[in-house]
Design brief:
Blueprint (H helix, E strand, L loop, with lengths): L1 H7 L13 H8 L8 E5 L5 H10 L4 E6 L12 E5 L5 H11 L4 E4 L5 H11 L8 E5 L19 H13 L3 H6 E7 L2 E6 L7
Parallel strand pairs: 1-2, 1-4, 2-3, 4-5
Antiparallel strand pairs: 5-7, 6-7
Length: 200
């Protein structure tokens, strides 16, 4: 498993990820390796994961890091671009879309505030490419008061996902027409898209 091995021997910038995420990444991202893809990671921190994605996806990937900390701009290098803004600011998100085009993958490792996670998903999900992936991690925060969470608390991303499960299986609305699967793991939700049903 390339990502896990790379993480273990990493001597570059700090990478802060839960170890059980790595097989999940491989499962949902491996088909994009060595393809021309646009990859967004919301939440830059020390920048190590941006470098990890660059090594993993290969020479044709464009990596976009989103963060509110202007110091993250220093992390930019070939293939890695950092844009400074609030992940819940739709005008900012649209400016990044206008600059780089629709992403193939969005990985939300940002503020983990439920309001931000929900607002970002609401705006970005329809913007990612057909056959793309939307990946939200650290969803244990959906149960933490400090992040606007709580068990069965209205307004959390987990509660929103429960409604999306109904939409998918009832084949209700555009979400069902453009979504192939929803996968849930410890602290992670992954949405895989597909060409809209009925499209040529």
């Amino acid at each position: 498993m390339f990502l896990w091995r790379d993480f273990l021997i990493n001597n570059h910038r700090v990478i802060h990820k839960w170890t059980h995420y790595f097989p999940i990444y491989e499962k949902h991202f491996s088909r994009f390796v060595n393809q021309s893809v646009v990859f967004w990671e919301i939440g830059v921190f020390k920048g190590g994961s941006l470098q990890l994605w660059k090594r993993y996806f290969g020479p044709f990937v464009t990596i976009i890091g989103i963060d509110i900390d202007p110091r993250c701009k220093r992390i930019e290098e070939d293939q890695i671009h950092v844009r400074i803004g609030d992940q819940s600011d739709t005008m900012f998100l649209q400016s990044v879309l206008d600059e780089f085009g629709s992403p193939n993958i969005v990985l939300d490792d940002g503020s983990h505030m439920m309001m931000h996670v929900c607002k970002t998903w609401d705006y970005m999900y329809d913007k990612i490419n057909e056959n793309g992936v939307y990946f939200v991690e650290d969803l244990h925060t959906a149960y933490w008061d400090d992040f606007g969470g709580g068990l069965k608390r209205e307004g959390t991303f987990i509660e929103q996902c429960k409604g999306l499960v109904d939409n998918l299986h009832a084949r209700k609305g555009s979400f069902a027409k453009t979504t192939y699967s929803m996968s849930f793991y410890d602290s992670v939700a992954v949405f895989e898209k597909r060409r809209p049903i009925g499209a040529l």
